[in-house]
Specification:
This protein is α+β, with helices and mostly antiparallel strands. It is built from two helices and six strands, in the order βαββαβββ. It comes from Streptomyces thinghirensis. This is Transcription regulator AsnC/Lrp ligand binding domain-containing protein.
Amino acid sequence: MTSHALHLRLLAEPAVLGYPVEGRFRLTVHPGAVDEAVRVLAREPSVRHLALTTGRTNILGYASHASMAELRTFVARAFSGLPGLHSADTSLLMRTYKRAGAPARL
C-alpha cells in the first residue's frame, strides 16, 4: 500500500508571488551522471519542475525568477559545474495558457 497516492496543492501564479520571469531548460547529460545532476538541480530553490525525458535531451526543467538578471545568474551557476553536462538549451516563457491542469486567466 502506497502512502503517496494523493497530493493536495495550491495553484499560484509565480508572478503574484514575485517571480514573473519563467524559464525552461533542456539538458543533455551523460547517462552515468543523470542521477547526480538531477539531485543537484532538485536542490535549486528556483527549479519548480524537473523530469527525465527521452529524445535529444534527457532532463527537462522549469524555473521561476524575480528578474532576468536572476535567471541569467541561475543558468550560469546551476549549469557551470553540473556533473556530466554535455549541452543546455534554455528558453524564456513568454506567456502561459495552462498551468497544472488549470487554464490561465486570459
